Amino acid sequence: MFRSAIEERVAAAEAALRLAVEGLDPDDIPAREAGRLFDGLERIVRSASAARTLLARRVEASMEWKRLGYGSAAEHLAAKSGKGLGAAKADLETSNALVELGATRQSMLEGLVSPEQGSVIVGAAKHNPAAEAGLLQTAKKANLQELSEAAAKARAAADRDPEATHARLHADRRATRFTDPDGARVHKLRGPVDLASIFEAELDRLADEIFRARGKAGTIECRDAYAYDAAIEMARRSARADHVGTGERAKPPRPQHLALLRLDIEALWRGYAEGDELCEVTGLGPIPVAVARRLLGDAVLKLILTRGDAVAHVTSLTRGPTQAMRYALLWSSPTCIVEGCTRTIVEHDHVWGAEYKDTRHTKLGELERKCHTHHDLHTLHGWAMVAGAGKRPMVPAEDPRHPRHATDPPGSPPAEAHTSRRPPSAEAHAPPDRPPGDPPCAPDRPDLFSDPAA
Predict the structure, then answer these.
(1) pLDDT per residue over 395-431, tens digit each?
(2) Phi, psi of 59, rounded to the nearest 5 degrees
(3) N or C: which end of the chain has fewer CB within 10 A?
(4) Number of neighbouring beta carbons within 10 Å of residue 437
(5) How far apart are CA 141 and CA 343, in angstroms?
(6) Cα end-to-end distance, the chain, whole Å
């Protein structure tokens, strides 16, 4: 049977790879080589996956799938790859879109972009080709969630009719249910952001309620467990309200969790967003200005009108942030400030060089939102953020990018790392010389803790 040159090369590469990993026993690999070997195999996987994705549209055009008895090319690809039908359809869409996106295609073939990253970039770039280069740069330093958020904004920026898109998402809303291989029942919701914000605000409020009740009993579980229990509690309360003897539905409690509607004032006046203007529910995604206008009277949302990312500067003489600071920080940093970290359960931390024990004040510009892990690295081990604004790396004291090197004289010993560990509580983050009665910097956990309006 005749085989083209590329088919011969692929067959040779397949044989060589099989030979290379034959008899592989991870325990026999020296620890210093394991990471390098993993990176090499990852590049192979990425390049092979990219080539396979590119071929998907050709497999569809060949009509071979019809000869083999499949109802569609996606069904054929799903059967051959072992993927779900939805994933196979996504591969076909990506394959067809890559025809016009040469930079993304080349990055995928070179293994610089993973198949998952490529799919996200393609999904946005086919609607907004001008965003392709920026998204490829984002993929180099951000995780998949951050890339997805950037892609969603790029796609929304190119949307000429956001209200029609919102209407389409509403028409396509759905709740799917299935049982996974482990036997657990799984529920998935998909719909427009404004409706999701109502659901999530109530879910978070109940999760907070459950967390506090169980915390008093000494039971601590993960956030997702409380969120699941909160969803069940929502159903139970609804069922009880439907069966009260008076025939009247019980009035639901007002959601107390903070959700910010980020909206540029010019967009509000004009009725639609232009350029880099924002109109989104923090942490959830963009929404049309018309939908934002309908939400302004909703008690679930607190409105912040701004020009870009500019927020008011606030100063306090207490250690913890004021309510206004919390709003401003949630606006400017919806997740942990450390590059690559997307945790939304965060704590307020004073920046390196502006500790409360030294300054005796708290300023908005001297606060950062960090997850518990990164807060500990700063407080207990002397790590700090590199100079700059927004998401950026966090480094140990010996790293030349650490801010101490900008002020300490040459040859200064590295900052002493605290090796003793204290209990994981808010008190753990207070400096040792904090005066009695001076409250610690309180955690800000919008997904678990109430954050009522000031």
Answers:
(1) 999 999 998 887 654 444 444 444 333 333 333 333 3
(2) -65, -40
(3) N
(4) 5
(5) 16
(6) 77
Among 22-26, 116-120, 444-448, the range scoring the smallest mean pLDDT is 444-448
| CA distances, 406 to each of 67, 166, 221, 300, 400 (Å) | 69, 49, 41, 44, 9
pLDDT at 438 (0 to 100)? 37
Contact 120, 144 (CB under 8 A): yes
Which of these, 140, 143, 163, 162, lies nearest to 153 by C-alpha position? Answer: 162
Give dist(CA 403, CA 406) in Å, integer.
5
For the record, the structure tokens of 387 come out as: 């100079």
CB burial of residue 165 (10 Å; 0-12, 13-18, 19+):
middle
List of long-range contacts for 389-393, beta carbons under 8 Å, 24+ apart: 390/333, 390/337, 391/146, 391/333, 391/337, 391/338, 391/339, 392/337, 392/338, 392/339, 393/338, 393/339
Residue 185: what residue type?
R
From 98, 95, 147, select the one nearest 120 (Cα to Cα): 147
CA pair distance 329, 348, nearest whole angstrom: 9
- 433 to each of 355, 359, 367, 437, 440, how far by Cα in Å? 12, 13, 20, 12, 12
Of the candidates 9, 92, 89, 90, the residue with the CA atom closest to the CA atom of residue 54: 92
- C-alpha separations of 154 from 102, 151, 366 in Å: 18, 5, 31
Question: What letter represents residue 239's amino acid?
Answer: A
Helix (H) or strand (E) holding 178: strand 174-179
3-class SS of residue 30: coil
Residue 73 token pair = 């090319």
The CA distance from 436 to 78, in Å, is 64
- Residue pLDDT, tens place only, 167-210: 999 999 999 888 888 888 899 999 998 899 889 989 989 998 99
pTM score above 0.90 = no
Give Cα separations from 51 to 7, 48, 54, 295, 447 (angstroms).
12, 5, 5, 45, 41
Please report, for the chain, the start and end positions of each structural domain, with discontinuous segments joined by +: 5-160, 196-257, 259-306, 315-444
Sign of CA dihedral 139, 144, 146, 147: positive
The rounded distance, in Å, linking the Cα atoms of 301 and 281 is 9
Question: Which tops the pLDDT comparison, 262 or 385?
Answer: 385
Whether the CB-CB separation of 319 and 310 falls below 8 Å is answered with no
Query: Which are the contacts of 440, defined by CB distance < 8 A and separation ≥ 6?
Result: 319, 320, 426, 427, 429, 430, 434
Is 12:5 a contact under the CB 8 Å cutoff?
no
